[in-house]
Amino acid sequence: MSAQPDGPYGPLIPMPELNPDALRAAVARIAPSRVPALTQHLFEATTNAQQTQSLAPLRAFVHSWAVFVAIERHPERAARLRELERIVDAGEQDPAEAIVEIRSIRETAEAEAGP
Prior knowledge:
- It contains 5 helices and no strands.
- By secondary structure, it is mostly helical.
């Protein structure tokens, strides 16, 4: 696992290794209510990988949950993302700035999540 500083508080946990067990453990620590969704997604990815004889579904699973962990391990980042998503969903104001910031948060998380 590797940690990156996050202001004065730092991340809740280091970035885990990019494998299902490490991601499950990370999600259990930072967002336990999401473990059932992760488990279901892993089951579906495994089934799809077997059916298609391709590792692509498992790679997509790992990437998706690594990005989730990269966002959620930084509480301020996660809260800001949820706030921005509410702005876009509400449709009460021009969402352009919120969309740009959402994209920036996701790009940062994807860089932390690795290839």
